[in-house]
Amino acid sequence: MIFDHRTYDVIPGKLNDFLKVYEEKGFPLQRKYLGEPVGWYVSMDIGELNQVVHIWKYDDLSDRAAKRAQLAAEPGWGEYLKAALPLLQKMQNKIVSPAPFFKP
């Protein structure tokens, strides 16, 4: 099992715009193709501001690649990206796996 941990830095003043676009156009498609996220979070007033963090679970890298290819082929995903990407400053992605002693 692997986890896709994503952190997006949103342009200051655009967080609510990004969240609206994502809720309406991105989240339904990701849930359809990727399943339910492990978590989806918004930064508060401590630490880095204007960030969203979301985590998705996959069986392995092949499972991730297959699901993300299906998502990318969805016409609505391109529409979402066209609306969302201009609201972002930076996107960071990392793949993590559970430590041997932790069973999620």
Q: How would you describe the shape?
A: globular
H/E element order: EHEEHHE
Report the structural category. alpha+beta
Please state the second-level CATH architecture.
2-Layer Sandwich
CATH topology assignment: Alpha-Beta Plaits
Number of helices: 3
Question: In percent, how helical is the residue content?
Answer: 40-55%
Beta-strand content estimate? 25-35%
Domain count, please report it.
Answer: 1
Strand order of the largest sheet: 2-3-1-4
Round the mean pLDDT to the nearest integer and report it. Answer: 96
| Main beta-sheet strand count, sense and barrel state | 4 strands, antiparallel
* Number of distinct beta strands: 4
3D architecture notes:
With 104 residues, the protein is of the alpha+beta class. The protein is 41% helix and 29% strand. It has a single domain (2-96), classed as Alpha-Beta Plaits (2-Layer Sandwich). The relative contact order is 0.30. The model has no long low-confidence stretch (mean pLDDT 96).
Helix and strand layout, with pairings?
Layout: E1 2-10, H1 15-34, E2 39-42, E3 51-58, H2 61-73, H3 75-84, E4 88-96
Antiparallel strand pairs: 1-3, 1-4, 2-3
Helix pairs in contact: 1-2, 1-3
Keywords:
3 helices, Dimeric_a/b-barrel, NIPSNAP family protein, NipSnap_domain, alpha+beta, 104 residues, globular, Alpha-Beta Plaits, four-stranded antiparallel β-sheet
Structure at a glance:
The chain has about 100 residues and is an alpha+beta fold. The chain is built from three helices and four strands, in the order E-H-E-E-H-H-E.
